Amino acid sequence: MMPASILLIDDDSFFARLTAAMLAPAQVVLAKDGAEGLALMKAQSFDLLITDLLMPGKDGIETILEIRRADAALPILAVSGGGKFGGRGDLLRMAQRLGANATLQKPFTREELLTAVETCLAAGSSPTPVEGSGAGD
How many Å is the Cα radius of gyration of the chain? Predict the structure, then answer.
């Protein structure tokens, strides 16, 4: 299987580069906010979106909502460190209710990240079988 193409949206460039390194050999494209990420999504297709939730400009929640309107099938992993709002668990739960396939609380380990990415990619690549769609029907 070819390495996945992943769009990673995070306003913390150090964290974004570190996360991209953890995802090797996947092809990771970085965006600094939701607006840049959405523009990149119009220009090319991705197998997975990883987005931070708390960012200036277009935040991760707005980004998830816009992407879900445009592409209901794209797997989304939401990540958050909570920032000054403190209730990061609440933000992550909201992201999942609004369309994220999985969530991770920062900081996370490489193993936690890879497990979440594999879960998201598996969910995105395995359509639900339709009952009674056998060849003899």
Answer: 15
User: Whole-angstrom Cα distance, residue 45 to residue 110?
Assistant: 24
Q: Quick check: is 93 in a domain? A: yes
How far apart (Å, rounded) are the C-alpha atoms in residues 22 and 9? Answer: 15
CATH number of the domain bearing residue 79? 3.40.50.2300
Report how many domains make up the chain. 1
Tell me if residue 29 falls in helix, strand or coil: strand
Q: Alpha helices of the chain — where are they, by DSSP H? A: 13-22, 34-43, 60-70, 88-97, 110-125
What is the C-alpha separation between 81 and 41, in angstroms, rounded? 24
Determine the Cα–Cα distance for residues 42 and 34; give it in Å rounded to an integer. Answer: 12
Length of the chain: 137
| pLDDT digits (tens), the chain, 137 positions | 568 999 999 999 999 999 999 999 999 999 999 999 999 999 999 999 999 999 988 999 999 999 999 888 999 999 998 755 555 568 899 999 999 999 999 999 999 999 999 999 998 765 433 343 344 43
